[in-house]
Amino acid sequence: MARIAYVNGRYLPLTDATVNIEDRGYQFGDGIYEVFYAYRGRLMDETLHFARLERSRGEIGLASPMGAAALRVVIHELMRRNRVETGLVYLQLTRGVAKRDHVFPGPVPRPALTITVRPKPEPPEALDGWSAGAITLADERWGRCDIKSINLLPNVLAREAAKQAVALEAILFDKAGMVTEGASSSVWIVGADNVLRTRGLDQHVLPGCTRAAVLEDVATEGLDFREEAFSLEALRQAREVFITSATSFVKPITALDGVPVGNGAPGLIANRLYARYLARLKEG
Amino acid sequence: MARIAYVNGRYLPLTDATVNIEDRGYQFGDGIYEVFYAYRGRLMDETLHFARLERSRGEIGLASPMGAAALRVVIHELMRRNRVETGLVYLQLTRGVAKRDHVFPGPVPRPALTITVRPKPEPPEALDGWSAGAITLADERWGRCDIKSINLLPNVLAREAAKQAVALEAILFDKAGMVTEGASSSVWIVGADNVLRTRGLDQHVLPGCTRAAVLEDVATEGLDFREEAFSLEALRQAREVFITSATSFVKPITALDGVPVGNGAPGLIANRLYARYLARLKEG
């Protein structure tokens, strides 16, 4: 079955899903995006994702194409047309088509909204096999990574460097040697003190929706937790490292730059939080 | 007359000039670009622009769609079809269309090459009127601004901030308070010591083609010059400030954050270098 995409009000076969070359998303990366995980017809953490979309939109001054309720209708219609109940929903919003000039165009063009969906298997019942290696890399991204923009070239290069090292993710650290986040995930560690840590939100990290949801699970589990930055050194000495994102759920990092993390197997806390994640997924 | 664009081997009316929404340029900003100034049918500093295109391409590992000689043929054919002899040529190259995933796609898709041209008036005979105001702004761009990538959202936001302040350009400074460059230009100052300065090339600035050409003029003029970084404070106290780029040529900045630079008029050295620029333009 041909994949169907949503493009500015129309449902089109993906091969016909096009935008003008003067769409500012194409020439300037002047746009934002969201990725939702759909599980059996429901969008996981959808309130968080729609809120973040609104925030990103406001931060770069994009006009709104439609409200969250209408967007939800479009997404579900697109899932129906693609017969996808469990998978990834990719939504992108750009400033639209205008003669190329850096400044915001006037009059304001219609923002360009494109959405695609594709199937993705359900998460495994246990973490066996659901783990990966990561590399560490200097964070060379811009100063506003809290905006989920489509300026993703540094992330692309970081993930490609990870792939070349037979790893999945690149964990980034700033000039002070503090970990920011993964190229496409939030990063968590459990230290020798058994304290779970993830960096607090600032302009250098994306406010992860899965991160926010897992934070609630951390409280429910009563884990010893601190929301604070940690160093590359602390990362290397961690008993457990795991990442969270809409596509990786809760995923243990079992090797860092080729060196096993802890005993090289998914850790106790990752297992507990993964179980919580699965429970939330199934409760709906 | 409808504008004609070049899109992956075809010459199309601009309204029909489209790319797939899964072009990596659209979803990741995974591409590079060049802007040439064409003057009476000739591409200014074309050797420098083609060399920079090759360099950017290599830095992010893009496949080559064609060599510089073939590209030159396409550009001139596009100028002919648009009846543009003097204007701007915009050329963009992306990693092509692939199912969305950060890592480089395999097999390697055909890179997407798009080119547009549009008329731009010839530069004025003298600098009267050819000047502008600038604002100063923290440089929040990524760590590889030496690559001419289409990840331009920070540049867009900076230029928009300038426009809101009724200025043309945003002059950027790093965390150490040193000027990097303009959001879309190289920056030069003449200090109280009468020394002309522009920052040396590193990963935080674009190797400007017009900058390189003007450097030769600086030598020809025998100006007292140092290629070295200067501070925001030095910028504010400069006698003269000017920018260079393919679209601004040599353009005096006569006000900074609303405060006149020097006596608020184009300076002596900018005038000399602008005259040199015009001479080169006309000599061909």
Write structural notes for this entry.
2 copies of one chain form a homodimer. With 284 residues, chain A is α+β, with helices and mostly antiparallel strands. Chain A has 2 domains: 4-119, D-amino Acid Aminotransferase, Chain A, domain 1, CATH 3.30.470.10; 133-283, D-amino Acid Aminotransferase, Chain A, domain 2 (Alpha-Beta Barrel), CATH 3.20.10.10. Helix content of chain A is 28%, strand content 29%. Chain A is built from 7 helices and 16 strands. Chain A has helices at 24-28, 46-59, 68-82, 153-164, 209-221, 232-236, 268-283; strands at residues 4-7, 10-13, 18-20, 31-39, 42-43, 87-94, 112-119, 132-138, 169-173, 179-182, 186-190, 196-198, 225-227, 240-245, 249-256, 259-260. In chain A, strands 8, 9, 10, 11, 12, 13, 14, 15 and 16 form a 9-stranded mixed beta sheet that branches. A 6-stranded antiparallel beta sheet of chain A has the order 2-1-7-6-4-5. The first copy, chain A, is globular and about 55 Å long. The model of chain A has no long low-confidence stretch (mean pLDDT 97). At the A-B interface, strand 3, helix 1, strand 7 and helix 4 of A face strand 3, helix 1, strand 7 and helix 4 of B.
Topology:
The structure is a homodimer of 284-residue chains.
Chain A (H helix, E strand, L loop, with lengths): L3 E4 L2 E4 L4 E3 L3 H5 L2 E9 L2 E2 L2 H14 L8 H15 L4 E8 L17 E8 L12 E7 L14 H12 L4 E5 L5 E4 L3 E5 L5 E3 L10 H13 L3 E3 L4 H5 L3 E6 L3 E8 L2 E2 L7 H16 L1
Parallel strand pairs in A: 8-9, 8-15, 12-13
Antiparallel strand pairs in A: 1-2, 1-7, 4-5, 4-6, 6-7, 9-10, 11-12, 11-14, 14-15, 15-16
